[in-house]
Write a structure and sequence with these properties.
By secondary structure, this protein is α/β, with parallel strands linked by helices. It is built from 16 helices and 20 strands. The strands form four sheets. Strands 7, 8, 9, 10, 11, 14, 15, 16 and 18 form a nine-stranded mixed β-sheet that branches. Strands 1-6-5-2-4-3 form a six-stranded mixed β-sheet. It has a three-stranded mixed β-sheet with strand order 12-13-17, with helices on one face. The structure holds ligand BES, manganese (II) ion (MN) and zinc ion. The site of ligand BES has 16 residues, from α12.
Length: about 500
């Protein structure tokens, strides 16, 4: 699919369908010209109340043949003009293109005057960017294993605008990165193994981006025993993946993504119902790879480390048993009371590793860490926990810009007590009480003084149903947020 920006009028371009965004309360100049082309049909539809341009409302109409180069118009409601926001623009773009996704038009043009005529108070990009971002994100679908269905795809999208109205390469980069993460996450665990993740990471190698993979024996030499304890039950080789982007000077940011390619729970086995969804337990790792891909495409002038401690979590005769004790790279010992609390074991070794070798200026981990997160937030927000106020503010700012919601949760000192072990420095699970927070607190105990933030994305990495511009399945949550964070805080 090709997307282009062309500074021509609606009537000058031949397309199967013209997308026409309109406000509920103000019919602008652009609308009037097209109303003429449709011989007053648009006005009739609106004045009769047959169509109300509420946010996300759509109506597809045919124009009389030969009268106009435009064959059809897809009206998309933007709601009230004074209430428009960047997220509402994404929503509208998403709704319009979710409809087009089900049809079979090859050439689509987009009228943009209504959108470019507003100014958004808080947003960092021109308003048209958000509409197009929503539109392109909504076109994603996971088709890899569908061989008997006809796949409908748009060939050309022409955005009728001036080049200054949108930084199209940037929008395309963040959308492609998000969709890349969604593909990796949607791919089932028999294909998306730790080895496959390592292979994908290695494909990103370039002059500024080096990729190193620690095999199990290398990880053992490094003392990554907490991480390796998760891999013990699996026949798939574990891969501790390190992506090192060198685009500038100074201490790097480190992004650590939970990369459990399948989480059965291990010996503390999960119930069968819904277990198939545990292929998405590497969504944090997928987001990390996608962010590294995007920043290297954008050539950000900074240093960034991405780490994926990848493994499966399976039961077997060689698997870790509840009650086993391991020593993490930090020297702290962990009593593994529940083998299903495996994400934190892999993450703390990645945290210890990155602190030891890279002295990062901040660490952000992104992880589908707890079922409690999903229970708390449904599909609506990621939980944010941190040891650093400034970092929290910066992440919140990025989150507001990309509308990937985060909600800060507390790390009360009292939780230390919950994680006390009788025989080791701490145990890996405190049970049900405050499970979302004790998971975060566990990580904190391994961070030392480095500014650190934890994003529990268990609630948002997978959509249970279609949303306006992110369909059911893997969402790519965190990709746009982290790119924005890294771009704004060089
Ligand atoms: N990967 C799961 C968390 C999860 C659950 C993610 C549902 C997405 C949807 C994690 O490894 C896990 O099993 N956590 C346990 C921790 C418990 C044993 C302390 C949980 O949340 O039940
Ligand atoms: Mn688990
Ligand atoms: Zn898990």
């Amino acid at each position: 699919m090709q997307v282009a920006v062309k500074n021509v009028s609606e009537q000058q371009i031949k397309s199967d369908v013209l997308v026409l965004p309109i406000y509920q309360d103000q019919l602008l100049e652009n609308y009037k010209t097209l109303d003429k082309a449709s011989e007053g049909l648009l006005t009739k539809l609106i004045n009769s109340g047959d169509f109300t341009p509420k946010l996300g409302a759509t109506l597809l109409i045919h124009l009389k043949p030969n009268k106009s180069k435009i064959q059809r118009i897809l009206l998309i409601g933007l709601g009230k003009k004074e209430e428009i926001t960047n997220e509402k623009l994404r929503h509208a773009g998403g709704k319009a293109f979710s409809l087009l996704k089900t049809l079979n038009y090859k050439n689509v043009s987009i009228s943009t005057k209504e959108i470019t005529s507003v100014s958004l108070s808080k947003a960092k990009l021109p308003p048209l960017s958000y509409f197009i971002e929503g539109a392109l994100l909504s076109l994603y679908s996971f088709n890899k294993y569908k061989n008997n269905e006809e796949i409908k795809e748009i060939d050309n999208i022409v955005i009728l605008a001036k080049s200054k109205d949108i930084d199209l390469p940037y929008i395309e980069t963040i959308v492609k990165a998000t969709n890349f993460a969604r593909d990796i996450t949607n791919t089932p665990a028999n294909e998306m193994t730790p080895s496959k993740l390592a292979e994908i990471a290695q494909c990103l190698s370039s002059k500024k981006l080096t990729v190193k993979v620690l095999e199990a024996e290398d990880a053992q030499k490094e003392g990554l025993n907490a991480y390796l304890s998760v891999a013990k039950g699996s026949a798939e080789p574990s891969k501790f993946i390190i992506l090192n982007y060198n685009g500038g000077k100074g201490a790097p940011y480190a992004i650590i993504g939970k990369s459990i390619t399948f989480d059965s729970g291990g010996i503390s086995l999960k119930p069968a119902e819904g277990m198939e969804k545990m292929k998405y337990d590497m969504a944090g790792g997928a987001a990390t790879i996608a962010v590294m891909k995007a920043i290297s495409e954008l050539q950000l002038p900074s240093n960034i480390i991405g780490i994926l401690p990848a493994t499966e979590n399976l039961p077997s005769g060689s698997a870790t048993k509840p009650g086993d004790v391991v020593t993490s790279i930090t020297g702290k010992t962990i009593e593994i009371v529940n083998t299903d609390a495996e994400g934190r074991l892999a993450l703390v070794d990645a945290i210890g590793y990155v602190n030891k070798y890279f002295k990062p200026k901040a660490i952000i981990d992104i992880a589908t860490l707890t079922g409690a997160c999903k229970i708390t937030f449904g599909n609506e927000a990621a939980a944010l926990m941190s040891n650093n106020k400034e970092l929290v503010e910066k992440i919140k700012e990025a989150s507001e810009e990309t509308s990937e919601r985060v909600w800060e949760m507390p790390l009360y000192d009292e939780y230390k007590e919950y994680l006390k072990s009788d025989i080791a420095t701490l145990k890996n699970s405190a049970g049900k009480d405050a499970a979302l927070l004790t998971a975060g607190y566990f990580l904190k105990e391994f961070v030392s003084d480095t500014p650190w933030a934890h994003l529990d994305i268990a609630a948002v990495a997978w959509n249970d149903k279609d949303k306006p511009y992110i369909c059911k399945g893997a969402t790519g949550f965190g990709v746009r947020l982290l790119i924005n964070f890294l771009k704004e805080n060089l």
